[in-house]
Specification:
little secondary structure
Length: 71
């Protein structure tokens, strides 16, 4: 079941990328505006910086980084 209120992260993302939408199971309500807060963290470091010291997000966490782990 697709949850349209959540961030859509493609299959090319790092296995360590986390965001709060992964942990929220709620039906989409069209009367509530999306927050799009874009808060991400690394499962390895537990902060917004990866093991390489660079920013963690759905764009930056890609195969070009040495800490990247494929799903």
């Amino acid at each position: 079941m697709e949850q349209p209120g959540l961030v859509n992260i493609g299959a090319e993302r790092c296995a360590n990328l986390r965001w709060k939408g992964m942990f929220i199971e709620a039906e989409w309500d069209p009367t509530v505006p999306r927050s799009n807060d874009r808060l991400f963290w690394c499962q390895h470091t537990h902060i917004c910086l990866g093991p390489d010291g660079k920013l963690v997000d759905d764009y930056e966490c890609n195969a070009a980084r040495n800490c990247y782990q494929a799903l």
